[in-house]
Structure formats: C-alpha cells, structure tokens
Amino acid sequence: MSGARVRVALVPPTPGSLPTAACAVAVDVLRATTTLAVALGHGAARVEPFASTLEALAYRDATPGTLACGERDGRIVEGFDLGNSPFEYTPERVGGRTLAFASTNGSIAMLIASHCRRRLLASFANLTASVEALAAERDVWLVCAGKEGRPAIEDTACAGTLAQRLVDRGGTLANLEAHHAAKLACHSAAEVRSLVERAEHARWLTSLGPAFAADVRYCATLDALDSPASW
Ligand code: MLT
C-alpha cells in the first residue's frame, strides 16, 4: 500500500476548505503547538481552541475543570490561568484539566482543522513521534499557523521536515507548498536549533525577557518529547 499524500498550508487556509476525511496537523513551533504538546504529555485531558480570549474565558467560566490559557502579544491575558510558555504546563497544573486555549495564530490553525477526521499538534519538540503517528495515514494536511497571515519560517521548516520524513516512508508531496516546505527540511538537531533561534518570532520573543528566551530554546529542541499530541 502506498504512503501518504502530503499537502501543506503555509498559513491557515479558508475555513471549511480542508477535506473532512483528512488527518490535519497544526504546526506552530513558537510556541502554541509546542506548549500544547507538553500540556497533553503532562496529562491535560483535552484542548478546546478559540479565536478570541473572551470566548475562552466564557467557556472556562461555564465548564468546570477548565483552565483559560494562551496569549496576546506573547504575554498571559488578564483573567487567564496560564500563558503560552511550555514551562507553565506542569502535570500538577494541567493534569486532567480541559484547556480553553486562545492564542494569536496557533489556535486559529487548530480551528481551521477542527472538522477533520483526525487532528494532531506537531512541532520540532515532538517531530519524530508525530511522524510515527502519521505512518498509517493516507491524506495528510500540515497546517502552519504562520504569523498574522504571513508564513513563519519555523513553521514552514517544521512542516517541510515532517513532509520529507513521510516521503522517506513512501509518501508523496501533493501540492506546491509541500514541495516548497520540503526544501527547508532540517536534518539534524543543530539545524533545527539554528533555524528556530534565528527566526523573526524567536528574536521578538527573546526581546521580551529571559523566560521567553528559555521558551525559544525549548521550542528549538528536536524531539524533546517522545509522544505525539492529538486534540
Ligand atoms: C501564537 O499562537 O500566535 C504563538 O504561539 C504566540 C506566542 O508565541 O505566544
């Protein structure tokens, strides 16, 4: 049996445009899908994405056991329980909890994929585990969050690395964006770190302070996690 047809969206596509039967993978290396992969690995029950912070707060207030999480301008939102740093999502804090998540770009990419048959959250931190989880899939859409409607190099490179790994397993690149992204595929942990830490969003986050710089270093760590993340 042949491998997966792999398609990439460099920024979130039009709502409803992804095939329902597809396996959609949201990619927001800095920082949303990295952070949520940590949270799910630390026992969070589920993630509910929202476009607006008010919706996330309302959902939290109406749903017992839920935490309002995410960011605006990189920082925790007033009234939220958690920001968007992977270091905040400890087992003690998120174990068994539902996360009402609203971020600038990552939650938008998740919402665009929310009607798809299967949904994963991928980043460099859980890259190999994500490739393994996609091994049996036939129709894969890699949905990059980008930054405010523009492609983000760290997301494109992560999608490209995932796509190239699936091609190595018999898959095919099935749209122009997948071919473009595969040209940016990283082949070592050092390449991942170099690319992510020099990205525009990484430099901006680092300018916010040492805690954000630590987030960037974590998000630039290939295979820091050994489990895939479904939502
Ligand atoms: C996003 O979803 O836009 C990013 O994860 C924002 C951030 O870096 O906190």
How far apart, in Å, are the first and last alpha carbons?
Answer: 27 Å
Order of helices and strands: EEHEHEHEHEHEHEHHHH
Biggest β-sheet: strands ordered side by side in the sheet = 6-2-7-1-8
Tell me the number of strands: 8
Radius of gyration: 16 Å
Relative strand content? 15-25%
Strand count, sense and closure of the main sheet?
A: 5 strands, parallel
- Treating each run of at least 4 consecutive H or I residues as one helix, how many helices? 10
Please give a structural write-up.
The chain is of the alpha/beta class. Helix content is 38%, strand content 16%. Helix 5 packs across helix 6, helix 6 packs across helix 7 and helix 9 runs antiparallel to helix 10. The structure holds D-malate (MLT). D-malate (MLT) binds next to loops.
Task: Tell me briefly what this model is.
The chain is α/β, with parallel strands linked by helices and 231 residues long. The chain has ten helices and eight strands. The model has no long low-confidence stretch (mean pLDDT 97).
